[in-house]
Amino acid sequence: MPVSRELRYGSSRTDQQPVEELAPLLQALLDDPTITEFGWTQYTPYFNDGDVCEFSVGEIWVRTTAEVDTDEIEHDDYDLSLWGHPSLGRVNYEYRGEWPNREYVELGYEGPDEKRYRRVKELNDAITSGAYENALLAAFGDHALVTVRKAGIEVESYEHE
User: Fold this and answer.
1) What pTM did the predictor assign?
2) What is the largest CA-CA distance in the chain?
3) Does a structural domain hold residue 66?
4) Residue-wise pLDDT tens digits, 36-58
5) How many domains in the chain?
């Protein structure tokens, strides 16, 4: 019997990778004497704007020895995000060309230690790529704030809108 319908896929996720592949990237930050802690949020949004609410992992945040006053700098406010971090530096980008051939071009690094910045960015790019979502969900759960320190990994419930 023929079936006529529009085919809908359940998810557009990339091929999934095991969490063990993140170990060298995590260890590179743990081995850095200036990085005291780092982490990310991961959750399924609550809102329904018509699109399917899917679990995802947020951008990484990093606290270094330069950010010693934990009461004044909070990762929830994006003060410690990679894209404008107070002590890691930054990479500047700009758009070049006209649509639809426009490109996002890296202009270069500004800051005290480009190698450190690139190590952090490599972990950030991995966890936000979508390739580890199943593994991170299984390891740390949904609606979670994950904080990684030399002493271990702490997972707290994360409140979001």
Assistant:
1) 0.82
2) 68
3) yes
4) 999 999 999 887 677 778 899 99
5) 1
